[in-house]
Description:
single chain; mainly alpha; two-stranded antiparallel sheet
Amino acid sequence: MSEKRLKIILPIAILLIGITITIVMIKSRASVETRPPREYAPLVRVIEAQPTTHRFKVATHGTVKPRTETALVSEVAGQVVWVAPTFAEGGFFEKGDVLVKVDPRDYELAVVTARGQVAQAKVRAEL
């Protein structure tokens, strides 16, 4: 036989032999006897969980960073006379909450002085 024919016939022969062996194995297999499944007792104890309160102590290392940082700047000068208890490191507050109260005397005096200057300017303008 030529080498070219051998390259064609050999793979086909191997394939046919494999198919024949597979068919023989399938037909000659023994039948499997089926039994009903056995029930096994569980190997664990079961208890019903009840909700309770418990405080856990967790020791850890790391750096805590705030989600939001804000720099607060006063628009008026004066001495701070009251600070909200929530205005502290880590404190929470909402929009519109009063955080500090400034002594109003300084800016009330500034308003009176400005009104006096306006009145003087009006008098000068009338002359």
